[in-house]
Specification:
Elements lengths: L10 E5 L15 H5 L2 H7 L3 E4 L3 E2 L11 E5 L6 H13 L3 E6 L9 H6 L13 E2 L2 E2 L5 E2 L13 E4 L4 E4 L14 H16 L5 E4 L36 H11 L8 E6 L5 H8 L8 E4 L1 H4 L15 H13 L9 E2 L9 H5 L7 H13 L4 E5 L21 H13 L4 H14 L38 H7 L4 H14 L1 H4 L3 E5 L6 E7 L4 E7 L5 E4 L7 E5 L4 H7 L4 E4 L4 E6 L1
Parallel strand pairs: 1-2, 1-15, 2-5, 5-11, 11-12, 12-13, 14-15
Antiparallel strand pairs: 3-4, 6-10, 7-8, 9-10, 16-17, 17-18, 18-22, 19-21, 20-22
Helix pairs in contact: 11-15, 12-13
Bound molecules: 1-O-alpha-D-glucopyranosyl-D-fructose.
C-alpha cells in the first residue's frame, strides 16, 4: 500500500487578506478577521487555508513587494496574530500555508537598501545589477530590451551607483540574485524557516520558475514595434539552474520539517514534460504547481489583457491535457480556475447575466469537484462572485498592472475615445481587480466586510445584496454556497474516483457541452455540462450501471426519473453527475 501525502486530497481555500474580513473598522481586511471566519471555512469543507502575503510591505503590489519577511503589515496585525491563526487552524484539524515570494523583495527591504548603497557593499551582489549600454549617438540604454510584467522596462537606472537593476515586476520590486549562495541562505532563513518554525504547513510559491535567469542577458525579438520593451519570458522562465535551486531548497529547508506542502506558480510553461520536472515525486522539488493554461483562456498572446475570443473546445482541451498529465507519471496536478490575479470564473467561462449566474457557478463547482488533483478555491468563488460591473469608471481599478497597462496603451492610442473604451472593456473582462473586491458577507452596509465609516479600501460590488454569504446560508442547498458544500462532501466521500480517477473526455470538439468520465478499477463517474444559455442535448458515456447522483438544478432528480436511454436534455448552464460501482 502506498500512502498518499496529505495534500493530495486536500480542499484548499485562498484568502486575500486585504479583501476578506475587516475586524477593526479601518476598511482593510486583517488577520483577526480571518480567524473570525475559520468556522465558516471549516463548515464549507476546507482543509487548507492559503493566505496571500500578509508581510510588512509598502503595498506597491498588494503585499507581493515585501520589505521584511519576519514582520506582518501592521494594518493586517502582528506576528502574534499569525501565531493565533496557525493555532486556530490546527485546533480544527486544518492546515495553513503562506505565500513565499522570493523572486524579488521590495526596494524598501534592508537587503536592497544595502545593495544599492555602493558598488562594494557586501550585499551588492544580492540583486541583479548591470552596467548600461550606449546607442551609437551616445544615448544610455538599459542592458536589454525586456518588458516588465507591469509595463515599461525590466531595468531601473540607479543614478547613485551608475548601474541598472533588474525588476521583472514593478520598479519597486528588485529581483534577488539567486546565483549567490549567501542570498539563497538568507532567503531560506528569513522567508521560510522563520515561519516553518512557527508551525505553518507549507507554501504557495510565487513565480517559482523565475529565479534562474538565462546568463546571456540577450535582447528579445521585437514583436511590438511601437514600444522599445518586448516580451522576454524565455530569458527568465525555467532558466538553467532552477531545478538545482529547488532541490537545494528541499535539502536545506523543507526536508527538515516533515512533509510541508508546496504549490508553485508556473507561468509560461505549456509543455507537460517541462512541468513534470518540477513535480515528479521522485525528484522532490514541488508537491504540485499551478500551470497557467486554464487562466490563459481569453488572454491576448502579446499582452494578456487584450481580450481574445475563445471557444469551449479550448477550455475542454486544457482540462483534458492536465487531467491526463498524471497518468503513468509520479507527478501531481492542481484543479483551480480563480485566484487573486484572475477575473471571476462565472463571468469568464460562463455568464454572469441575472438569470444565468447561479447556474453558472454551480456548473463550474460540479466540474471542478469532479477533477483529479488538489482542489483550490479562491475567496468568494464559493458564493459565485462576479466581475466588476461595466458601469464602473476606470479610476475604480486599483491594481498596478491594470493602471500601468491602461496608461501605456492609452498613450500609444493617442487617447482615442473608441480605443479607450476598448481598453476599459478588456480590463472589465480580465483585470486582476475583478478578484480583489471585498468579500460579500451579508446585505448590510459595505457587504458586512467592514464597519468603517469611510468604507472599504476598494469599492464593494453593486450586487452584494443579491450575492452574499448570509443570504446563501439562509437559502441552504439550493444556493451556490450550499451546492459547493455538497459537492465538496461528495468529492471527499468518493475521493478515489473524483480526486484521483482517470479522466476520459467525449466529443471534445463540441462547442456547447462538456461530457467527461472519471474511472478507477471499480468505480465510474460521468459528468455532463451545458456551457450555453440554451437547452442542449448530451449523450451519457457508455458506462455500465450509471445512476444519477447530483445535479445543479434542484429538480434534476425528477427529470431523471422521466429520462430513458443515454440522451439527456440539459437546461441552460445545467450540469449533472452520475455514478456507477
Ligand atoms: O504572479 C506572477 C505572474 O506571473 C502573473 O500571474 C501575474 O498575475 C502578473 O499579472 C503577470 O502579468 C505573482 C502573484 O500572484 C502576483 O499577484 C504578483 O503581482 C506577482 O507574482 C509578483 O509577485
Amino acid at each position: 500500500i502506498t500512502s498518499r501525502p496529505w495534500w493530495k486530497d486536500a480542499v484548499c481555500y485562498q484568502i486575500y487578506p486585504a479583501s476578506f474580513k475587516d475586524s477593526n473598522g479601518d476598511g482593510l481586511g486583517d488577520i483577526p478577521g480571518i480567524v473570525s471566519k475559520i468556522d465558516y471555512l471549516k463548515n464549507l469543507g476546507v482543509d487548507v487555508i492559503w493566505v496571500s502575503p500578509m508581510y510588512e510591505s509598502p503595498q506597491v503590489d498588494m503585499g507581493y513587494d515585501i520589505s521584511n519577511y519576519e514582520k506582518v503589515y501592521p494594518p493586517y496585525g502582528t506576528v502574534k496574530d499569525m501565531e493565533d491563526l496557525i493555532e486556530a487552524c490546527h485546533k480544527r484539524g486544518m492546515k495553513l500555508i503562506l505565500d513565499l515570494v522570493v523572486n524579488h523583495t521590495s526596494d524598501q527591504h534592508p537587503w536592497f537598501k544595502e545593495s544599492r548603497s555602493s558598488k562594494d557593499n557586501p550585499k551588492r551582489d544580492w540583486y541583479v545589477w548591470k552596467p548600461p549600454r550606449y546607442a551609437e549617438d551616445g544615448t544610455r540604454l538599459p542592458p536589454t530590451n525586456w518588458r516588465s510584467y507591469f509595463s515599461g522596462p525590466t531595468w531601473e537606472w540607479d543614478e547613485h551607483t551608475g548601474e541598472y537593476y533588474l525588476h521583472l515586476f514593478a520598479k519597486e520590486m528588485p529581483d534577488l540574485n539567486w546565483e549567490n549562495p549567501e542570498t539563497r541562505r538568507a532567503i531560506y532563513d528569513s522567508a521560510m524557516k522563520f515561519w516553518l518554525d512557527k508551525g505553518v504547513d507549507g507554501f504557495r510559491v510565487d513565480t517559482v520558475n523565475m529565479y534562474s535567469k538565462r546568463p546571456e542577458y540577450a535582447d528579445a525579438p521585437v514583436v511590438d514595434p511601437l514600444f522599445y520593451e518586448q516580451p522576454a519570458y524565455s530569458h527568465w522562465a525555467n532558466g538553467p539552474r532552477i531545478h538545482e535551486f529547488l532541490r537545494e531548497m528541499n535539502r536545506e529547508v523543507l526536508d527538515h520539517y516533515g512533509q510541508p506542502m508546496t504549490v508553485g506558480e508556473l507561468p509560461h510553461t505549456p509543455d507537460p514534460k517541462q512541468v513534470l520536472e518540477y513535480v515528479c515525486a521522485s525528484d522532490r522539488q514541488l508537491s504540485m504547481v499551478f500551470q497557467f493554461d486554464i487562466v490563459n483562456v481569453g488572454e491576448g498572446r502579446e499582452h494578456k489583457f487584450v481580450f481574445r475570443e475563445w471557444k469551449l473546445p479550448e477550455l475542454k482541451g486544457v482540462v483534458e491535457k492536465w487531467q491526463r498529465f498524471v497518468e503513468g507519471t509520479d507527478g501531481w496536478t492542481t484543479v483551480f480556475c480563480e485566484n487573486h490575479d484572475q477575473p471571476r470564473s462565472v463571468s469568464r467561462y460562463c455568464s454572469d447575466l441575472p438569470a444565468a449566474r447561479t447556474c453558472s457557478a454551480k456548473l463550474l463547482a460540479l466540474m471542478l469537484c469532479s477533477l483529479t488533483g488538489t482542489l483550490f478555491l479562491y475567496q468568494g468563488q464559493e458564493i459565485g462572485m462576479i466581475n466588476i460591473p461595466s458601469s464602473w469608471n476606470i479610476d475604480e481599478y486599483r491594481d498596478i498592472e491594470s493602471v500601468n497597462f491602461y496608461k501605456a496603451m492609452a498613450a500609444k492610442a493617442d487617447n482615442d475615445a473608441a480605443q479607450l473604451e476598448r481598453l476599459h472593456d478588456c480590463l472589465q473582462k480580465l483585470a486582476r481587480d475583478n478578484a480583489r473586491l471585498p468579500m460579500q458577507w451579508d446585505g448590510s452596509a459595505h457587504a458586512g466586510f467592514t464597519d468603517s465609516e469611510k468604507g472599504p479600501w476598494m469599492r464593494v460590488h453593486d450586487l452584494y445584496q443579491e450575492i452574499n454569504v448570509e443570504k446563501q446560508i439562509r437559502e441552504g442547498e439550493g444556493s451556490v454556497l450550499g451546492f459547493w458544500k455538497r459537492m465538496i462532501q461528495l468529492r471527499k466521500k468518493h475521493a478515489d474516483v473524483l480526486a484521483h480517477g482517470t479522466f476520459e473526455g467525449f466529443e471534445m470538439e463540441d462547442e456547447r457541452t462538456f461530457v467527461f468520465g472519471k474511472r478507477t478499477e471499480d468505480a465510474r463517474v460521468a459528468v455532463v455540462l451545458n456551457f450555453t444559455g440554451e437547452e442542449q442535448e448530451v449523450r451519457l458515456p457508455e458506462y455500465e450501471g450509471l445512476r444519477f447522483e447530483v445535479g445543479s438544478y434542484e429538480d434534476a432528480k425528477e427529470e431523471e426519473e422521466r429520462a430513458e436511454g443515454r440522451l439527456r436534455r440539459l437546461r441552460p448552464w445545467e450540469g449533472r453527475l452520475y455514478m456507477a460501482g
